[in-house]
Amino acid sequence: xxxxxxxxxxxxxxxxxxxxxxxxxxxxxxxxxxxxxxxxxxxxxxxxxxxxxxxxxxxxxxxxxxxxxxxxxxxxxxxxxxxxxxxxxxxxxxxxxxxxxxxxxxxxxxxxxxxxxxxxxxxxxxxxxxxxxxxxxxxxxxxxxxxxxxxxxxxxxxxxxxxxxxxxxxxxxxxxxxxxxxxxxxxxxxxxxxxxxxxxxxxxxxxxxxxxxxxxxxxxxxxxxxxxxxxxxxxxxxxxxxxxxxxxxxxxxxxxxxxxxxxxxxxxxxxxxxxxxxxxxxxxxxxxxxxxxxxxxxxxxxxxxxxxxxxxxxxxxxxxxxxxxxxxxxxxxxxxxxxxxxxxxxxxxxxxxxxxxxxxxxxxxxxxxxxxxx
Amino acid sequence: xxxxxxxxxxxxxxxxxxxxxxxxxxxxxxxxxxxxxxxxxxxxxxxxxxxxxxxxxxxxxxxxxxxxxxxxxxxxxxxxxxxxxxxxxxxxxxxxxxxxxxxxxxxxxxxxxxxxxxxxxxxxxxxxxxxxxxxxxxxxxxxxxxxxxxxxxxxxxxxxxxxxxxxxxxxxxxxxxxxxxxxxxxxxxxxxxxxxxxxxxxxxxxxxxxxxxxxxxxxxxxxxxxxxxxxxxxxxxxxxxxxxxxxxxxxxxxxxxxxxxxxxxxxxxxxxxxxxxxxxxxxxxxxxxxxxxxxxxxxxxxxxxxxxxxxxxxxxxxxxxxxxxxxxxxxxxxxxxxxxxxxxxxxxxxxxxxxxxxxxxxxxxxxxxxxxxxxxxxxxxxxxxxxxxxxxxxxxxxxxxxxxxxxxxxxxxxxxxxxxxxxxxxxxxxxxxxxxxxxxxxxxxxxxxxxxxxxxxxxxxxxxxxxxxxxxxxxxxxxxxxxxxxxxxxxxxxxxxxxxxxxxxxxxxxxxxxxxxxxxxxxxxxxxxxxxxxxxxxxxxxxxxxxxxxxxxxxxxxxxxxxxxxxxxxxxxxxxxxxxxxxxxxxxxxxxxxxxxxxxxxxxxxxxxxxxxxxxxxxxxxxxxxxxxxxxxxxxxxxxxxxxxxxxxxxxxxxxxxxxxxxxxxxxxxxxxxxxxxxxxxxxxxxxxxxxxxxxxxxxxxxxxxxxxxxxxxxxxxxxxxxxxxxxxxxxxxxxxxxxxxxxxxxxxxxxxxxxxxxxxxxxxxxxxxxxxxxxxxxxxxxxxxxxxxxxxxxxxxxxxxxxxxxxxxxxxxxxxxxxxxxxxxxxxxxxxxxxxxxxxxxxxxxxxxxxxxxxxxxxxxxxxxxxxxxxxxxxxxxxxxxxxxxxxxxxxxxxxxxxxxxxxxxxxxxxxxxxxxxxxxxxxxxxxxxxxxxxxxxxxxxxxxxxxxxxxxxxxxxxxxxxxxxxxxxxxxxxxxxxxxxxxxxxxxxxxxxxxxxxxxxxxxxxxxxxxxxxxxxxxxxxxxxxxxxxxxxxxxxxxxxxxxxxxxxxxxxxxxxxxxxxxxxxxxxxxxxxxxxxxxxxxxxxxxxxxxxxxxxxxxxxxxxxxxxxxxxxxxx
Amino acid sequence: xxxxxxxxxxxxxxxxxxxxxxxxxxxxxxxxxxxxxxxxxxxxxxxxxxxxxxxxxxxxxxxxxxxxxxxxxxxxxxxxxxxxxxxxxxxxxxxxxxxxxxxxxxxxxxxxxxxxxxxxxxxxxxxxxxxxxxxxxxxxxxxxxxxxxxxxxxxxxxxxxxxxxxxxxxxxxxxxxxxxxxxxxxxxxxxxxxxxxxxxxxxxxxxxxxxxxxxxxxxxxxxxxxxxxxxxxxxxxxxxxxxxxxxxxxxxxxxxxxxxxxxxxxxxxxxxxxxxxxxxxxxxxxxxxxxxxxxxxxxxxxxxxxxxxxxxxxxxxxxxxxxxxxxxxxxxxxxxxxxxxxxxxxxxxxxxxxxxxxxxxxxxxxxxxxxxxxxxxxxxxxxxxxxxxxxxxxxxxxxxxxxxxxxxxxxxxxxxxxxxxxxxxxxxxxxxxxxxxxxxxxxxxxxxxxxxxxxxxxxx
Lengths: 374, 1119, 460
What we know:
Chain A has 3 domains: 4-94, Alpha-helical ferredoxin (Fumarate Reductase Iron-sulfur Protein, Chain B, domain 2), CATH 1.10.1060.10; 103-245, no CATH class; 252-369, 3-Layer(aba) Sandwich (Rossmann fold).
């Protein structure tokens, strides 16, 4: 249900239009006003007040949005746009509407698979490095190991997890990898499927009870664990964990000459406010460069929560990759959604005009690769 | 708004009602939400059943219909039509198969009833998600393509043409008629096959609406039902439309090859017509790849041509053919090193053809002086040639024919160059050379002997007086050995030795002679020395025996004349005392190799020094050209003239050079080739055209399989020996050693030729063809036609019984296939209807073996349907013509057709022995007296339960009918599929036997499975019906359930274009310039591959959307 | 054929809709007034607009032109339904000719984008509304928008040389010319500017563009008494200086800003004056001196000057964040546009501000006043819980009271935000004798009253 307070929040929006100048999607679609924050708030208001029924234009309005928070950050009225959109999504899911996931809802099904105890893929043999069944320090993989078989290009899930384990081991820690851990529920939460999200949250919380420290490599898992779970253990994104290890002098790197830039995943940056950790890490061993739009102004890869993968968000990714190519030879990001969609784009050189030459590497894998071999 | 669904459940007589409690299922369905009415009926597909649906739609206002009955493949179209007539969009109906999927496969009534409920419930859930779809109409091109001109293609073509619609009939063979034209009598009426076939064939030939394309094949098919585009390759027949089939050319054609039509039982000429009544009634020339001998010959002579002419006794024509490419035929006949023989395919069987000897025979058979010279129209240009060797003479000959005024300047007193002074008389008689040169002079070529360029006349004079100059001065200066004693003593240079002898001047030689060198010059010096009376002649050469450059037959003849050859030796010193030579010191040689500058380093064996006593030493280790300084041409290695390889032009403008002067000492034929190329180069240079260079690929080695086939076809037969002068007579006598072939010898040798190239370009046929219909330069033609439908009638292949070794086909002469028997018994066949054994005797007893390759696990499991009947027919003919005993070994007599059983009854009264059993083997190994000289057929007679051994004279194998060997490519070409037995897949065995799953493409006749002529004709009429139905309607309705893409979710990644085999989806730019996919709904077959490949779910198949399919699944698991 | 199919025929499937959700998104602008449209269309060319308008005039259904919908007075709200013309896809800058001081644009061009393009040649389009990042030129023309710098460069009307307009009967006319000066019969261009789209749809505009001033400086003066503001402004003008901008923050605004962003730390005084000076370096220097002396003369507590970019931004930070500050006051209360835009003769500013404080106390609603004091134009923002009818009604009564007070002081209730639908009452009151003439002109242009009905006039 959209709470009373959220309704008041909607009234704050005076439809001044500032968001139309900022929303990267609206700049591509140039379509109806429902394609921008103020339109989405208005239709949420209409929905909540019963003035609008659920139809495909309403579903499109609410779901054709990666909830990247750029508009919310600049809104004069300070309306909590993403929260309102999410609550509106929850409302229509409650009323039986089906979530128009991209990719035929494959990844939603993957998450449901991780929820069922009987069904889980024993991917442990793919992971290199010293780890154990359980313990105080936990590495939270989320759905990463389940993505590989579904995508038709090499995401390198096993490599990323092994890289994380290598970093743990280098810091003298044998991380616990609990295979029964389910999807973090980020996509369920942000697609408005609160019931499904709570089931995931309950299962994960049960498994994580008694742990001290949880580290995850994906920005989305980090943001949901931090903001929506109530865990007694400390939740860290891998970039924060590596930064602390460097400060404690436990990690040493071999100097790299490559020009590298970092794409701030909106779930790491705007949603949870962590901009500096990845930069501090990268600057220690590589020629770090900033892109034109970075930090809180970084433009999203267009596909939050497996939502909204279409030709407009593809143009978004193309612009983002071009922007990165102007600054550096390698683009690092720390979120499985950004990584999979940037990598997918790079697999179509012959079909996408002026696709720049640039390597896309996951933050964890890049860090592990540059560790000085002892 | 809630939907109103009508559910109709069929009893299908007892097929469904037997196991499914239809009443209970109907009541259950009535309870489902959105179901307005549920009825059951005995036969839903009947008119009354369909009326139920139509009325309910009208009265109850149904907007969804579900029918539960048999497989949708049977009646989906029927019920769609019923719904449409009731006023409901046909795609708002769906079908539940409760027969094949339920009642037929389950015995337990209760379970079957539950399953029926589930299946129908699933359909009810699905039908709610179905949307109305519009069916598209596409115009149909009224023309039709028929592939294959057998009886099937002919019948279909005539029937369609009767409706005055255009038919393109494409046949691969030179004539239509197919297999049927090869048959003798047909069962059961004993009509003569050709009598009933040829009228139909002539109708096809004359019908204005049938565009017959024989000797043609389909290259490419694109497009879709109603609008196919077909590329057809009309292969060159080399005989134009003007041919009146008079047959004169056949008499003139010298080339014989096995006749395919007669199954190889006799031969046909290269220009031929498959059978008398062929349509199109035009002759055709069969031409295979260029024969290897022609490829190997440096001047590409039409060798197979003149060998063929010799074998038919046409020596004059053979000589004319020689002259067409070779300016010095008699000379070549004697001295050519014949590379053609090394690549002759006959070598794989026994020995290559004696091509060179036959060339000499032809030249000798003809009096060169009486050959008139062709008419030449001078073109007013003049060319000078320096040197009258083979290169100069050839250039002069060819330039003269082109109309140039040619003058040859020869330094010596007689023309011929190396031919005159280099090659001794016993190999090349003077008059033979003189006649060949005489012919060239008759062409108007002036030969000025005794004029050395540089003395009386300079090269500059020639450049001034003539428009082009060709230097062909050869290579006459002997090379030095640079060993001690060489300068001081008179070592005789080999070339000078031969020149002195050849010019008739005296030369002193001692009793013992040593010749140093391994080439032809050295061997000639040695043999001349023998003839001048030297008692002991030694040849010492560096090379090993088979490494010697000299021709192997010359070496043998020299040894025959007592010349002693020391191979792998090197001369290190000339031994002498006070100026008189008394021997040479040599060393044995392990190996040697030449370095770039032409020097040689030799690996000698220590301690092998020995002296060879001799009074005279002749040095013949090679020659090099002497080029006067004032020519000032840029020279290459070994003092040769440097030229651009293709045009032979030198560094001086308008001056060309060729032969040994450019290449150093080489073979005569290579010099002739250089002269001919120079002539063409000069001609195109003076005309200002660009010289086109003909490439001739080297002949390839045969694969083992090809070699085996050759050996199987042609029994080995040694080469005819060339008569030679007895060695003893050769001493002191310069008469020619090789005496030449007699006519019989020549014809016997020429007959060994395998005629690899088919037509040998002898052009004899062109000479006799009055209507001038023959054109050897015809090229293949590629045309494109547009048709509405395609009928495939490509027929069948015969099973090769050779693989069943027990039956001895190919091992015993008188084991023949049924088709070979057809040719034997046919009046127009090789034995004009006499049924004879291979040795000509009449058979007294014949065995006919059924099911060879058919109804057999190891080969084809199917029955070929026609063999039993033609076996009876064959038995009848054998009894009638020869009165021989006939044994039929059968498994079952399948005489199912009209009048078949009656025919079988008649045969039983004729005293034919029917033995019911599978034959195990056929052997000629006799165990008893009466079995001698017979073929013994062993088989079991299952009726009397004992093994039999039946001795017979002839065995006829009823071989299976199997799919064409290229059926796979043909299937891919027309996008149709094949059944497990290899024949083309029909759409439905019972109801749609002629159509295929690819709409617009039909399959008729034996390419769809073995069948007799009456069934084939019936199917052909069916195929014509299908085509005419489409043409009549003028349009074809396209399946509405095709792919559809939602433009905004599509990201233009193009994965769907990669998986679609019909090339329907395509990525285009939308109005905002973003890549998005577009589906060509006409081409799309609705297979769904693209929908599966689409990562974003933008692509879906109408009538089979995710929603519809998933709702069915959910309904099935609904508990 | 019904209207939606005709519209689809004109602009295609993608750019015409009658879907309820889409229509709902076009039912509001920044004002409190709402209205559901029957159809929404996104034309991309003048021809398409002409066809749509002639269709509307045949079928007698309202046409409501709309830029980016950031208007404050419900100018683009379809109060009588009909077809909303969303012109934001007509966003091409057709011609830029800085030598002849003009540029030709389509109505959907965003103001900031135009200035970015002009900045390449160091030119700019003078009027600068606060909504520069997202408002369209078409919207500015409809409402005759102005901003902080209009004191020096004038409002939109002063910068529009000519227009291409589709009249209510669908015919296309061109007014004005590319020359800076043109006087050819009645000045119809000026008539269309500020007509809130009631006379026709602007499909092309020829705008005057001027070179950017080379240097800029800012002076901030703090006063302990409101009254001094009036005096100082007069004093400044007296020195012959026309500042580029002259903005006022009163005590209420200062308190709210400090609460929202403490780091700005404005002094706790009765009023702050912020003045921008632009022009050649020498002129600016002289003007700054003149302004400083005037402020001191009138008794400013403190006067600050700033030249560098950072210093200028620091002084202006407070003024820029006043809009957002109000929203942050109370999570339950938004800042609707009530009593938002009014003006008085400069001398009467202090009285007006006193009057506003009185009304605030009386209505119990805390109010914040600020504005372009250079041309006597004031804005008032008040935090109101729009879901609480009583509070909303009380606020609206207070808003009207402010406008009445302004009129009483000889001012105006319609200085810069245009009339739209929410200020119809004040047009009648202020224009008095001219009102019937205006109505007559409307009837001439739009006999069937289909062009943005319910705006400026309420014709039954």
